[in-house]
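To make this tangible, we now present a fold written out as tokens:
***
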Amino acid sequence: MKNTSKQFLLSLLATTISIILTFGVAAIIDNYKNNKAKKGLVLTVIYDMDKTLQTARQADSALKIASRAQLDIVKNPDSYDSLKNDIVPALLISSEEFSMITEKIFSSNIETFSTIGNVNFVNYVSSFYQNRSSYKSQVIDVLKEELQKNNILLSYEGLLDVNFSSLYFDNFVWLSSLSEFRDNCVKIMKLTDEEIREFSELREVSDDNNNSYYLVDEMMQEMYEAEDMLKEAREKFKKHKK
């Protein structure tokens, strides 16, 4: 009888331990997967931020040179032909477009917030993308409109109609704001420079090896634009129908 009870207790103990180990290991694996997904998503967002900042820094340098060249030309109009080429890099800024893929994934997928699990990070990222939109409209799009209206490289008069100093200042302000949001995100998630650099290098290699990446990027942006247009058309149709 004692042996039977002892065997029963040992069997029960073994079963209990087995259950604990099974669910414990499963929990550890799930936790690892969740942490890995979280880190991957966070690093993807930071990568997108860094690409934006790279563009803004290039614009900062180009607009600074263009601003100085413009002032030198104003002081000495005869130098227009020799200095106007210094303005060309700033004009190229007008063709810059930011990839919207990461922003769309971040802002439109409710699972993103539960995966990250940090309200402050989410708020800073949202503010970054809001500021990026304002930066594009107040610097890049403004420059694009100016180029459409003025023949900057064809006439001295056309050059005078564009205020490169103002654009340079606005770019500097937005660049500072975007950099602050990005740095706060890095601090909150306790990311190291090495982690960010390694992820960036892997992403760059992946982009270079995958020639279809930019095509997919373009197609996704077209898809989002089409969705917005269809949504607007449906709403107008419903109003008209009423």
Notes: The chain is about 85% helix and 0% strand.
